[in-house]
Amino acid sequence: NAGVTQTPKFRVLKTGQSMTLLCAQDMNHEYMYWYRQDPGMGLRLIHYSVGEGTTAKGEVPDGYNVSRLKKQNFLLGLESAAPSQTSVYFCASRWGGGVGEQFFGPGTRLTVL
Amino acid sequence: AQKITQTQPGMFVQEKEAVTLDCTYDTSDQSYGLFWYKQPSSGEMIFLIYQGSYDEQNATEGRYSLNFQKARKSANLVISASQLGDSAMYFCAMRELLPQGGSQGNLIFGKGTKLSVKP
């Protein structure tokens, strides 16, 4: 039981390049989330999904796209990376019942030059 | 709109002493849940403790307890007998709960408090 995993752990991009971050969970959770964490800003929600095939915008969605083709995977895409997207990205998941604590992946540190 | 405020950017505590990390929240919902997460220097986010708005007793989990004062809209985390491994960032978060059970909506996070435990 790996929990929530993220690929890659580190990445350096040049401005204008594209990339996809992969999040996978093996807990059969319905909900999945992508956050970014910047110094002094806490965690801010980028996009989220309440189930397979569904996605929705969070607090800071501009410049990002997501897809949830399979229940266990949630992909975050940057079509044209900008230095402002330099951040640590966290994926999280939770099941739909109970109090809904989220389980987080280890994070991806992205630098855009 | 819901909001979480953590007013202490950084805190120091002597090893083996207790420390309180402040969290205040703003919501018009009657039913909500409050969470605390720990983020050590390694970066992962670790769920610590949960308090429901209708829970009559303060939540406890080992050395962690939540001092919940609903009228004051505060949900402070108390760590007893601090250990060096408690040095980390701590985040308070909130989510709306459904009256019939279950949860909806997204977690709203505070900006965090960096706790440093001195030997």
Average the pLDDT over all residues of chain B and give the rounded result. Answer: 91
**Unreliable segments of 5+ consecutive residues of chain A:** none
| Strand runs of chain B, count | 12
Write down the Rg of chain B: 14 Å
Low-confidence runs of chain B (pLDDT<50, min 5 residues)? Answer: none
The biggest beta sheet of chain A is recorded as: 7 strands, mixed
Query: What structural class do the secondary elements of chain B suggest?
Result: mainly beta
How many strand elements of chain A?
11
Radius of gyration of chain A: 13 Å
Instruction: State mean pLDDT of chain A (0 to 100 scale).
Output: 93
How many helical elements of chain B?
Answer: 0
Topology of chain B as a string of helices (H) and strands (E): EEEEEEEEEEEE
Large-scale geometry of chain B: globular
Strand residue percentage of chain A: over 45%
Largest interface: A-B, 23 and 23 residues
Main beta-sheet annotation of chain B: 6 strands, mixed
Instruction: Spell the H/E element sequence of chain A.
Output: EEEEEEEEEEE
Quaternary structure annotation: heterodimer
**Ends distance of chain A:** 36 Å
Please explain how this structure is put together.
- The complex is a heterodimer of chains A (113) and B (119).
- Chain A contains no helices and eleven strands.
- Chain A has 113 residues and is mostly beta strands.
- In chain A, strands 2, 4, 5, 6, 9, 10 and 11 form a seven-stranded mixed β-sheet that branches. In chain A, strands 1-3-8-7 form a four-stranded antiparallel β-sheet, with no helix packed on it.
- In chain A, strand 9 (87-94) and strand 10 (103-104) form a beta hairpin.
- The termini of chain A are far apart.
- Chain B is built from no helices and twelve strands.
- In chain B, the strands form three sheets. In chain B, strands 2, 5, 6, 10, 11 and 12 form a six-stranded mixed β-sheet that branches.
- The interface between A and B is medium-sized, with 23 and 23 residues.
